[in-house]
Amino acid sequence: MSPGYGALRLWATVLIFVGVLGVVFVVIGTIFAVIQAEIFAQGLAMLLISGMLGALFAKRPIALRQGLRTRADIAEYIQEQQSRVR
């Protein structure tokens, strides 16, 4: 592992923390919204619409983390291959 790509890995770790925290907050918020719904249809709509959309947007940092880790892995692999050629 090269020290040159530590910043990408650091940000990937920060993003996984933010993503997990976001998903937890979405779940808690959806539960509270469903509990406070006045009728069953309103609670079901909260669960199916806002819960799913909230989870979708809350998972974006996790997807970005995977992209950053992949980019760092590919860069290290290419750097290793270039050092073997020389």
Task: Please give a quick description of this structure.
Helix content is 87%, strand content 0%. With 86 residues, the protein is an all-alpha fold.
Overall description:
The relative contact order is 0.18. Helix 1 packs antiparallel against helix 2 and helix 1 runs antiparallel to helix 3. The protein is rod-shaped and about 70 Å long. The protein has a domain of 52 residues. It is mainly alpha-helical and 86 residues long.
What key attributes describe this structure?
86 residues; mainly alpha; 87% helix; 3 helices
First and last CA, distance: 19 Å
Helix content: over 70%
* Major β-sheet annotation: none
Specify Rg, calculated over alpha carbons: 20 Å
**How many β-strands, per DSSP?**
0
Order of H and E elements: HHH
Q: Give the strand content.
A: under 5%
Poorly predicted regions are none
Q: Helical segment tally?
A: 3
- Overall residue-averaged pLDDT value: 89
Report the structural category. Answer: mainly alpha
What would you call the shape?
A: rod-shaped
